[in-house]
Amino acid sequence: MKSILPERYEVEKQFNSRVDNFLSKRQIGKILNNSNFSKQKGISCFVLFRFVFMLVFTGKNLYRTLQSGPDTGNPEKDAVYRFLNSFRHNWRKFLLTLSSSVIKETIEPLTSSSRKNVLILDDSLYSRNRSKAVELLARVKDHVENRYVRGFRMLTLGWSDGNTFLPVAFSLLSSQKECNRLCEIDPRIDKRTTGYKRRVESIRKSTEVMFDLIRQAQEYGIQARYLLFDSWFAFPSIICRVRKHGLHVVCMLKSTKKVHYIYKDGKLTLEALYRELLKKPGKAKVLANAIVQLGKDPEGNPVSARILFVRDRNRSKKWLALLTTDLELTDKEIIQTYG
Fold it and tell me: Measured between alpha carbons, how far is 199 from 108 in angstroms, rounded to an integer?
């Protein structure tokens, strides 16, 4: 039987060459250095980063790989854990710098100027139900199961041109309410470090952190015309504030009695607004739309928006509502952009 070892070795060699080419082309060593990744002695941060980076693509488990020992060419496990756990390393700056470089130098030159670039904000659960003593561990709401679990919320800001998606910034959030936090900040951490600032950030309101991520992405030159998010952030005050950053909003709306929209000199809930509108006959996918007033932006300018009611394809007798502050978008463009 023909041995497959030489073939496997050749594939691994080609893969390593492609990884090294990417790391060199993107100047990962320089980005790490500028993001406060440094060591006084031992294995360099670049070598440790390359080791962890390779694990993702080879599908290997970090713990199992480190258990094999340094005889296999792997770094010592203590060096790897110190690298990953250091509160001095600025991972957000690293990701922003790298993402900005990839977008500007690789994606945008290949993308048509007519394509709509967007920022996408997503809030997801990061469960740690078996943990007991993790720093800033909190009781957070699982909106899928409708119950509280131990863990964190991962707030992620990504960039997309409709074909490619890149994460550009993230924040791991605990809870703003002290009663929901099961563990507090380790008092031994230097308050001047990036790690301490991230811990303080994790107990702020998610909407405040959201605008910090948007501002930082724009400071690094990541350009987009729209900000997309789901109904969790779709409140008129937040949408009006987004306009200050030069972004239009396309988002899903949630029907609630606490939120009202100004339509024909009256304040209506989403349900009441839908009843007020003339519906399209038959089995039309777009049922109705209306231009409403949301309020005023931070500079006092009125903010208008179009609300589009579409048929829920999973429940034909129900509807979904999309909102955009770009009144020039057609019904089809609103659906395509959010999709």
Answer: 34
> Can you read off the two tokens belonging to residue 302?
């009125």
Q: Tokens 């100027």 belong to which residue? A: 113
Residue in the block written with tokens 């080609």 = 14
How far, in Å, CA of 126 to CA of 172, rounded?
A: 8
Cα(101)–Cα(37) distance, integer angstroms: 19
Report yes or no on 324 lying in a domain: yes
Structure-token match 């909102």, residue found: 323
The type of residue at 285 is K
Does residue 3 register a pLDDT over 60? no
Distance CA 328, CA 47 (A): 50
> How many of the other CB atoms lie within 10 Å of CB of 197?
14
> Same domain for 247 and 319?
yes
120 and 219 assigned to the same domain: yes
pLDDT band with cut points at 50, 70 and 90 for residue 147: confident
77 domain-assigned: yes
Q: Is residue 245 part of a domain?
A: yes
Nearest residue to 261 (alpha-carbon basis) of 304, 201, 220: 304
Q: Work out how many domains the chain is built from and give that number.
A: 3
The predicted-structure confidence for 174-195, as pLDDT tens digits, reads as follows 999 999 999 999 999 999 999 9
DSSP 107: I
- For residue range 255-277, list pLDDT tens digits in order: 889 999 999 888 999 999 988 88
Put simply, whether the predicted model's pTM sits higher than 0.90 gets the answer: no
> Which residues partner with 322 through β-bridges?
252, 308
Has residue 70 got a pLDDT over 80?
no
Q: Give me the domain span that covers residue 336.
A: 230-339
- CA nearest neighbour of 252 among 324, 316, 161: 324
95, part of any domain: no
